[in-house]
């Protein structure tokens, strides 16, 4: 080729190339063409495989492997990977939420759970079940909510919680499906399922050692009880933080509940600060705990009969006065009025009652209403039409109270039940918002002394204030009692790993 160029420039005759050289050049050219064709075909084949595997993974397969995000909540805003409500806005397009990347893992099977108890007991259980599923690398089916408890609420998960947000916001941690794949679903419908209640207060090693082999064997395992199935303490830090992430970020209430809760808060705020009183003086709690202080004979008989009629409540014979002395009873409305007054809660303060129907009705509430005339509840703030869809759905009503409790200036629970604990922990997470943690054992002793004339009002009030000066939801280390998990401080009341 150089000879040809020289001939063109200088007119000199070029020597012809040998036939062997011409054949070699042609062969090299053909080889290069074949190589490029092979590369192109390989690229197309690989790209096709990637697309097919991605589509298949959307339905069955593992997720894109990503590390856990940090769980530093000091600024009280969830990290981007926690399905933060980030949006991209471009002209002519609808805003879309940026989802966390999916996580890849070998799916070891499927976990179905039937939660038991009221809203907040189920809420904590759901957080535990997500953490357990993630650390066993199994697929979690959206939890079934309790419909057989005292409240007999027919609500499904999607009636209370934003199910799509729950699934997508956790997809970088665990795969969650609304229902089992068809083949396994048919098997379950035929009754071919392994159902069990895990051992209470177990650490995550129990689930790896005892439960994971069962899931691998049966493909699907069903937990028929979920309350307190994961230990409070001694768990991996990332597991503890995942429990918080589910509770504080993934478990959003439905837009309808969120909107109505916001409306209640707005109406309260228009009239100034407000205190939420979780007055757990309701029929089910009194019957369950055996607390009948101040009740007449007919009420005592009614509460006792109810306790004996519920098989789930194992303890039947209860000494009511001993329960009260030990601080194991919810404060009565009268005891509550004395306590708030002793703590110098302003008489003009709005007090929102976060509770169901108070046992004894308006007659039992008379003393508290006289002491604090700005006593309100959702039924008095909202129009009846606002609550129409919530009637006979106690968990949805409780969700409204939960939202209002989070936003209150002060939260005061009169019993250390599940709602009191979970709201306390959530308010800690939101910046240690003031929560009055009443020492019921001391209070009933002081109240009795005052009522019997053995203690002046000044001394009574001073003693109550002194006892509660530091019981306001301040940062503290969680109380750990080895070998007595029921008596130690609940993880969800003080999730110190996430604060």
From TrEMBL:
It comes from the Eukaryota. InterPro entries: FucosylTrfase_pln, GDP-Fuc_O-FucTrfase. It is a single-pass type II membrane protein. Pathway: Glycan metabolism. GO terms for biological process: fucose metabolic process. Keywords: Carbohydrate metabolism, Fucose metabolism, Glycoprotein, Glycosyltransferase, Membrane, Signal-anchor, Transferase, Transmembrane, Transmembrane helix. It holds the Pfam family O-FucT. GO terms for cellular component: membrane. Its main location: membrane. GO terms for molecular function: glycosyltransferase activity. The keyword NAD does not apply. Residues 64-94 are annotated as: Disordered. It is found in: Membrane. Residues 69-87 have a biased composition (Basic and acidic residues). Belongs to the glycosyltransferase GT106 family. This is O-fucosyltransferase family protein. It comes from Eucalyptus globulus.
């Amino acid at each position: 080729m150089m000879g040809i160029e020289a001939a063109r420039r200088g007119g000199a005759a070029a020597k012809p190339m040998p036939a062997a050289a011409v054949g070699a050049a042609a062969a090299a050219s053909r080889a290069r063409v074949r190589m490029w064709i092979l590369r192109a075909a390989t690229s197309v084949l690989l790209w096709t495989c990637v697309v097919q595997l991605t589509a298949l993974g959307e339905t069955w397969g593992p997720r894109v492997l990503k590390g856990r995000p940090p769980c530093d909540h000091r600024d009280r805003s969830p990290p981007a990977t926690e399905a933060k409500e980030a949006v991209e806005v471009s002209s002519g397009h609808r805003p879309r939420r940026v989802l966390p990347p999916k996580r890849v893992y070998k799916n070891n099977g499927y976990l179905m759970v039937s939660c038991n108890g009221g809203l907040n007991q189920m809420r904590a259980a759901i957080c535990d079940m997500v953490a357990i599923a993630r650390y066993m690398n199994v697929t979690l089916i959206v939890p079934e909510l309790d419909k057989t408890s005292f409240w007999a609420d027919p609500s499904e998960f999607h009636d209370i919680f934003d199910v799509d947000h729950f699934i997508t916001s956790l997809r970088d941690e665990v795969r969650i499906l609304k229902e089992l794949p068809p083949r396994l679903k048919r098997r379950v419908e035929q009754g071919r399922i392994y159902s069990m209640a895990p051992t209470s207060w177990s650490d995550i090693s129990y689930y790896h050692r005892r439960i994971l082999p069962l899931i691998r064997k049966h493909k699907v395992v069903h937990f028929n009880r979920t309350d307190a199935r994961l230990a409070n303490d001694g768990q991996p830090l990332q597991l503890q933080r995942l429990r918080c992430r589910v509770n504080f970020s993934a478990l959003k209430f439905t837009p309808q509940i969120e909107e109505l809760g916001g409306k209640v808060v707005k109406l309260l705020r228009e009239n100034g600060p407000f205190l939420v009183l979780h007055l757990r003086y309701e029929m089910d709690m009194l019957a369950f705990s055996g607390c009948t202080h101040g009740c007449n004979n007919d009420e005592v008989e009614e509460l006792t009969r109810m306790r004996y009629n519920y098989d789930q409540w194992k303890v039947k014979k209860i000494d009511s006065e001993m329960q009260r002395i030990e601080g194991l009873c919810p404060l009565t409305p009268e005891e509550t009025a004395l306590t708030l007054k002793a703590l110098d809660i302003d008489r003009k303060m709005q007090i929102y009652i976060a509770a169901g129907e108070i046992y004894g009705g308006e007659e039992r509430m008379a003393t508290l209403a006289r002491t604090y005339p700005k006593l309100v509840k959702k039924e008095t703030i909202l129009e009846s039409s606002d609550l129409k869809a919530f009637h006979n759905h106690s968990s949805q009503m409780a969700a409204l109270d939960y939202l209002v409790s989070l936003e209150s200036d002060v939260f005061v629970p009169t019993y250390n039940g599940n709602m009191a604990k979970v709201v306390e922990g959530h308010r800690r997470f939101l910046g240690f918002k003031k929560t009055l943690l009443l020492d019921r054992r001391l209070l009933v002793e002081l109240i009795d002394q005052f009522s019997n004339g053995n203690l002046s009002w000044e001394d009574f009030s001073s003693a109550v204030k002194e006892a509660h000066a530091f019981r306001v939801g301040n940062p503290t280390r969680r109380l750990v009692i080895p070998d007595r998990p029921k008596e130690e401080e609940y993880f969800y009341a003080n999730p110190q790993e996430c604060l």
